[in-house]
Amino acid sequence: MSGRVRSVLLLALPLEAGYLALSRLHDWQRSVVEYIAVYLATSIFYIVSCWWITEKNEKPESRRQLAAILLAGLAFRLTLLPLYPSLTEDPHRYRWEGKLQAAGGNPYVARPEDPQWAGLRDSTWPRVNRKDLPTAYGPLLEWSHRLTYAVVSRLEPNEFRQVWLFKIPYLVFDLATMGALLGLLAQLGRPRSWVLIYAWSPLVVAEFWASAHNDPVLVFFLVAAIWAAGTERWAWAMGALWMATLAKFWPALLFPLFLWSGGRARLSGRLGWVLAWTPLAALLSLPYWQGSWQGPAQLRGMLAGFLGGWRNNPSLYNVIYAVAGRDYEQGKPLVAGLLVAAVLAIAVRRPALPQGVLATTVVLLFLSANCFPWYLTWMVPLLATYPLPAFLLWTALAPLAYHILVGYQATGRWQDDPFYLYLEYVPVYGMLLARLIQWGVKKAFDR
User: By C-alpha distance, which of 252, 253, 260, 258 is closest to 235?
Assistant: First the structure.
């Protein structure tokens, strides 16, 4: 066994111990304090591993070292795979939306609490979230909910086991993301061993393989779009970006960046590929637009609420909220204006696509009124191409946001504690400020 393989195993062992400890907690919502503590401890070893792979592992990786990294990442995932999603209610909502579509309903119009759909209520009903709102997921994810329910309802009669089975399609996308990321790293001239940053991320492993969030679909298509664009395969790049948009909507913000990334040269060709994929996007969306014109209006209301109708784990949005006189309606134009200005500024500067997508994603998360921990998984594969310590630290601190469940279980109030927001965000913004000062000083001396 080579020294580098031995080092990988020595780094992986304490991480696996952390994942084993998490698996023994079983119901993370009832053990949320213990979950946060174990996660933070596990993340210490993850941060050390990221530092070692990017700063101390100077020689090109061997195939055995890369295989050890990937096998360790798979072992971490399999450790948490048996867990039932307990820290989130989202998978129960996925199943309800699949069941709704099987009954002929439109998730962009129907709400779980609607009396018309009371017949869909079963033993999982108490855990279906946001019963007063239609879906906020894109058509591509609605298709996944529809098809997954069609399969699992035939394979498994137990309703809670059906919820667990909703993990499987998204886990396939997570594994595919690792493959696409290896290709992207090689294309960029980065060490492929940096895939460790994604493969070993406690945030990715916990939120995807235990909590069963559907974000791996979005993450895969983002990585695929960047990878295809890097080899001038703009047909596939724009197709992948469309699919990412049809999953979670917000990647529509990335179209200016992708269109302008090559400058004016062949801009018309890139725009042509965007338009060429539009009919397929419309076809995938068509079933959800038929039957009622109320659906698009409700969807716009839901997305507007996401950027200023309630707050959960926000950072810069708290400043915007205060400036707007604690009025969500007045805050929405401020958020929208700042977001559009930032997106256009990033696109005009024409950074390398991985950095541009990372910058846009971070701006969105900083400005958002809601920043759930699993939203940070959107930037983890990008950090594998451009490791920024502040954002790696953010992924380690993000589960502090689950502190809100302690008070919610005790009092029924969904209320952030500012102390935990400071614990999460002050180190992140502090490290970013320090890096900015360092960059400014270096630039001044270079003159």
Answer: 258
Instruction: List, for the chain, all residue ranges whose pLDDT scores fall below the cut of 70.
Output: 1, 57-61, 290-307, 441-447
Q: What's the angle, vertex CA 151, arms to CA 147 and CA 152, rounded to 5?
A: 115
User: From CA 200, how far away is CA 352, in angstroms rounded?
Assistant: 25
Alpha helices in 81-136 (DSSP H): 90-102
Q: What is the pTM of this model?
A: 0.95
CA distances 165 to 75, 131, 179, 212, 299, Å, are: 19, 22, 23, 9, 27
Report pLDDT for 293. Answer: 47
Going by the DSSP 8-state scheme, the letter that residue 61 receives in this structure is P
Please tell me whether residue 182 adopts helix, strand or coil conformation: helix
Write the DSSP symbol of residue 62.
Answer: P
Residue 312: phi and psi, rounded to 5, are -150, 115
Q: How far apart are alpha carbons 439 and 255 in whole angstroms?
A: 29
- For residue 85 the two structure tokens come to 């999603």
What are phi and psi for residue 200, nearest 5 degrees? Answer: -105, 0
- How is 217-253 classified by DSSP, letter by letter? HHHHHHHHHHHHHHTT-HHHHHHHHHHHHHHHSGGGG
Distance CA 435, CA 441 (A): 10
The radius of gyration of the chain's CA atoms, rounded to the nearest angstrom, is 22
Helices (H), 52-132: 63-80, 90-102
Of 371, 369, 364, 372, give the one whose Cα is nearest residue 322: 369
**Distance, CA of 132 to CA of 39 (rounded, Å):** 32
Q: Can you say whether the dihedral through the CA atoms of 311, 317, 323, 328 is positive or negative?
A: negative
Number of H helices, E strands in the chain: 21, 0
Q: What is the DSSP letter of 132?
A: T
Q: What are phi and psi of 437, to 5 degrees?
A: -65, -45
**In terms of C-beta density within 10 A (0-12 exposed, 13-18 middle, 19 or more buried), how is residue 330 classed?**
middle
